[in-house]
Design a protein that fits this description.
Order of helices and strands: EHEEEHHEEEEEHEEHEHEHHEHHE
Strand order of the largest sheet: 8-7-10-5-6-9
Distance between the termini: 48 Å
Number of domains: 3
Helix content: 10-25%
Structural class: alpha/beta
Shape: globular
CATH class of the largest domain: Alpha Beta
Largest sheet: 6 strands, antiparallel
Bound molecules: adenosine-2'-5'-diphosphate
Length: 409
């Protein structure tokens, strides 16, 4: 390089759009290197820490996270500047000759995202158009509770509830697989408003009750953290204690990826644990309401819970016709029985799972505990090995074909 030519390093600075962000804290929780922080107004990204790994991009419900500006490195926006923003600044012109090349790390990540590895998977080609961000923190929709029913048995260790929200005259269109945000009232110990909490919708697009402007949620009362230490989940306890007639502030809807196919003959392979069943219930119920149309396609469900009394929707599930849905329940805490997880049943049903994996009209959905993701991935790898396919080659293709959708927490 000619030593006389001074290069001005340009970076692609990661920013969060304060106009869209709902302050749900998902990005800060997800960032593996602590590059995201917040104050009472905004969530912001530290330019000197962010390595553009993109881990925070898919989980963000609103897309506020996916904003970038080319800036001269020495003049990157500081977090103090970002805290003061009401809106993102426009892309500024760069000095002539600045940043002829992207830093290698950024170039790699950008290319990978474009190739569809990592990042959110596009929805099935035949999915309906989802509406997103219709209601925001500044102008939430107000829903009225029209039902709150316990789904788990009286002697069950968990309190999981089916909560029905009615939107009255307010338009709140949702599709199966989308989420909504709930704003718990009050403030946290530091006097800040609570974060928005996200819940998957458990009812189909035409409402919990067909043609009513309502939807349902599957909510587990959180009483302990992932390590079993006692905690009191702010939003889940608020929701589980709601009574008929109470009013709730709702933002959203969100989600443009975990959507079901609509074309006749399309099949669903669904894997879930616990409250991860919410989107599966929504999709199954959508298909059940259309049984008479004889559109074809198969439904296969793998569902894990501690015991039947802990499995949301156990009763209604058991009543579904066997030729409508192939149900495989894995129970992990049945007295005197070996622990069973969904991945064990996927292996046990390898021939049918392999057939559905080969079927380009079959879409795969995985929702529930984070730990399950790895177990299911390994089970699918085994299924493929047993049936002459290579999972590592197949997975990127499934994502590219919009056939593989994962939502874990
Ligand atoms: P476990 O009895 O080992 O906790 P929960 O009731 O906590 O929501 O969990 C739902 C189900 O998911 C339970 O049966 C639980 O079993 C199971 N589970 C826990 N960890 C995993 C995992 N890594 N893979 C699959 N299932 C799991």
């Amino acid at each position: 390089m000619d030593a006389a030519v001074q290069t001005v390093e340009v970076i692609r600075q990661h920013l969060i759009d304060p106009e869209i962000c709902i302050r749900c804290n998902t990005c800060e929780d997800t960032c593996p290197i602590g590059a995201i922080t917040h104050d009472a107004r905004n969530y912001v990204v530290k330019a000197d820490v962010c390595n553009a790994c993109n881990a925070c991009i898919p989980p963000c419900p609103t897309g506020a996270i996916d904003n970038w500006r080319q800036v001269v490195k020495a003049r990157a926006y500081s977090i103090e500047e970002q805290f003061a923003w009401d809106a993102l600044p426009p892309q500024e012109d760069l000095p002539v000759g600045a940043g002829a090349e992207l830093p290698p790390e950024v170039a790699r990540v950008t290319a990978e995202a474009a190739a569809g590895q990592g990042g959110a998977v596009a929805p099935p080609w035949s999915a309906a158009h989802p509406y997103v961000n219709l209601y925001t923190l500044d102008s939430p929709a107000i829903a009225t509770v029209s039902g709150n029913f316990r789904l788990t048995g009286d002697d069950a260790s968990s309190d999981i509830r089916h909560i029905v929200l009615d939107f009255g005259a307010t338009a709140f269109p949702v599709l199966e697989g989308q989420t909504i945000g709930i704003i718990p009232p009050g403030t946290d110990d530091n006097g800040r408003p609570h974060h928005v909490r996200l819940y998957s919708v458990a009812s189909p697009r035409d409402g919990e009750r067909p043609r009513y402007n309502n939807l349902s949620l599957t909510v587990k009362r959180v009483t302990e953290d992932h390590d079993g230490r006692p905690v009191r989940g702010v939003a889940s306890n608020y929701l589980c204690d709601l009574r008929k007639g109470d009013q709730v502030k709702v933002v959203g809807p969100y989600g443009t990826s975990f959507l079901m196919p609509n074309h006749p003959g399309s099949s669903l392979l669904m894997v879930c644990t616990g409250t991860g069943s919410a989107p599966m219930r929504a999709m199954t119920e959508r298909r059940r309401r259309r049984i008479g149309l004889k559109e074809g396609g198969e439904l296969m469900l793998f569902f894990g819970a501690r015991a039947p009394g802990e499995l949301p929707y156990f009763g209604p599930l058991m009543k579904l016709p066997k030729d409508f849905i192939d149900i495989n329940l894995a129970f992990s805490r049945l007295p005197g029985k070996p622990k069973q997880y969904v991945q064990d049943l996927i292996r046990a049903r390898a021939a049918d799972v392999a057939r559905l994996i080969r079927d380009d009209d079959c879409y795969i959905y995985i929702c529930g505990l984070k730990g399950m993701e790895k177990g299911v991935d390994e089970a699918l790898r085994d299924v493929c090995r047993m049936h002459g396919m290579d999972w590592d080659e197949l997975l990127p293709l499934l994502r590219e074909k919009r056939r593989y959708h994962v939502e874990t927490y």
